[in-house]
């Protein structure tokens, strides 16, 4: 199937529509096609691909469609029901997008605000169908939020809540052993501690503190930005009838586990709960290998301190008991970090699961984020002083290993100390305006690719974090409409307006990942993957040495279990995506 998908593509319309044909890459010849000729009517087979949002365009948002073509084209937009032409217009001139090595022309259909189904027609041939609707992102938010439920550890998913994705519980984690790397006087090697609940981190069945921290911050932040939207968003989970918003119930499943990662004897936080090796392609209940608490670390402790401080501050009126636990946890973890600044995580020889450590990281960003959240929560002089020492740190788009942006966002929105608030807002504004200017100059008007490290492992997560930054910056820029427009085109990219032909979220789109590197999806007997999970996304790393269709970063993606580098799922990519779709859905 994979071979058919990417080789021997006829550049004909049926091929484009059915399999999203990209043709073959020839870097030398294609990169030289940069100067489009003057506009003239072209036959439809000049179009190698149509890039459009496969889940639909929100009626009140920008609607950009791109055709992979070397010349401007006249396109008819036809109402699918009555076959009447509603718009006929000339596309832009072709522009080269270096990340895919292709030329694209732009069709701006923002004026099309009537809800309906439409066809893109050139010379009487239908190239693609798309819809305009009023509930595009509400539906997407629901499915993506439900994706977290499907990743619950220690939980049976019954037919009532999972439908065909029902499965037995696995990884109860009531008897996790202290690994030799985590041994202490109070908890010597082999001590048994409980660490139940939480979500599986990614395609594997393990639970990692560092990656959970940013994911949990992002999800709580999504709720706090749009509480009434989320209070009305019903998920199909067992807690749907209690008085708590379902997204918070889901988040508390993770929080309750997260708090078990702290050693109550000294406040230090374990890096992860994992088996020694990754399991095979098995269902959760078949994962019976022993699980271990692995080494306390500075990265885990600081990220834990930041996250629990953030939760302590914001759960006070939602769940006072959990807020109190978080407050104690945050200060203890930070205290441990101050006493153990050199405890950088070192992967023990007998442990092969994810390391979540960057060689050479000085942890200044983790220190900054933790100090910021603790200062905002406790307003104590020591925390503000620690923060002041790190004030030269720049704003950047957050990732699990680069978290200072989370601190700056919190400061921008919540700092009582006015100089911090103003400084943070200016940094956010500058970053977002830069992204907007650069995106406007790109051939498909997206901000992914603006920064050098955008097309890396988890590029779709980066795109979702771009959207979170843009959304956070809207309050501080002169032209928020321009950021809204970029948020729309960035979302379009994830849901299909990209040159791979895929909408990258399982169950959301007409061509979506079917072979995610996700153990449940691979091991169950269900043809479809678990819905609501975003694939890591394209980048040229190809670390898994799978069979990729291209070396261009934006085309280097393959929907195959083999491709853990581009087709795995992870909570730190789904969380900002949840934030991104909710930010738009709350306006629907
Ligand atoms: Ca509920
Ligand atoms: Ca870092």
Q: Write down the CATH topology of the largest domain.
A: Glycosyltransferase
Largest sheet: 5 strands, mixed
Hetero ligands: calcium ion
Radius of gyration: 24 Å
Low-confidence stretches: 1-35, 38-42
Helix/strand/pairing category: alpha+beta
CATH class designation of the largest domain: Mainly Alpha
- Assign a percent range to the helix content: 25-40%
Number of strands: 14
Strand order of the biggest β-sheet: 2-9-8-4-5
Question: TL;DR of this structure?
Answer:
It catalyses: Endohydrolysis of (1->4)-beta-D-glucosidic linkages in cellulose, lichenin and cereal beta-D-glucans. By secondary structure, the chain is an alpha+beta fold. The chain contains 18 helices and 14 strands.
